[in-house]
Amino acid sequence: MQVPHLRTTGLTVPDTPARPGRRTRPPGRGHRGPARRAVLPGVLGLLLLLHVLWSAPAGRPLDTAASAEAGAVDNGRLRWKQAFLASVDHPDAPPRGANDWNCVPGARHPRPVVLVHGTYENASSNWSALSPRLRAEGYCVFAVNFGAPRGDVNKGRAAVPRSADEVARFVDRVLDRTGARQVDMVGHSQGGGILPRYYLKFAGGAVPGEPARNKVHHLIGIAPANHGSTVSGLATLAQRLRILAPAAEFGGQALADQTIGSPVNRRLDAGGDTMPGVRYTTVVTRRDRIVTPYERQYLRPARPTDRVTAVTVQDVCPQDRTGHMGSPYDPVVLRLVSDALDPATAGPPDCADASEATD
Known about the structure:
Rossmann fold, 12 helices, disordered N terminus, 6 strands, alpha/beta
């Protein structure tokens, strides 16, 4: 499919005088409790602001009246919220159409599709639109939950290297059960960027010297967290206030791993963005306020022979205003993913279905 835009390319704790008969502790020890209580409001405030950003209308981030305007409803965002609330009662269940371990890939779609959710999401909340769609198109579909204990609705919080090992085990199981040699992988946010790229580079997903042994044929990232994010400036602020580490302690190491310049990002980006023999597609919305600046979502081929396709949603459908969380439910994005998986059946998305307001 030809699309209009392709790119290959200090908190201090005051000293308290010791009371008579009270045992004092050595300097630097024994003050973690007060320090944590001091930074906790900042952490909670950070998360609250993040929630506001998720929910605010495009172009008027704090104007709640805009959400009442006629037609200003992002159906993608609405469907994501509905799916997330529904997943609270069954946080470990796969979405409809996924994880049929008796599924045998057919000749038309010989590679199973593995769906990888984002941070604070789960397989059901992330893929309740794409999974049944791909199953109806004839794919064997599998959706992994990772990065949190069973029963926890907010998954994808663990350190990226640890989650990459979980994804690796899941992919091995899919290959073993289906008899396929490779999978195609579709991910959102963390699950479309830093996590699968870490899996490919460091956890066995790709074999640099023998690309034929790669376990992943095609990685498709929806709003992918590829090169770290400022989270509309909030992550940068947290770094300057030195509350990023406490935020990661309470909210999960994946938060810190996905900031610009994190040790995980530095290690991952060293030597180039791509692995030999793996095809990459990024589906990016300019309205993203979570992975920011949005340009950091694109990948650059490490070698002239590496296949990297970048699709910007608004260059396909200019009026599409989908944002980060709603993108896996946006009809235009869903069509772009189907086209990337099977170019033989590709066609232009129906821009009349485009989301009308961002998240």
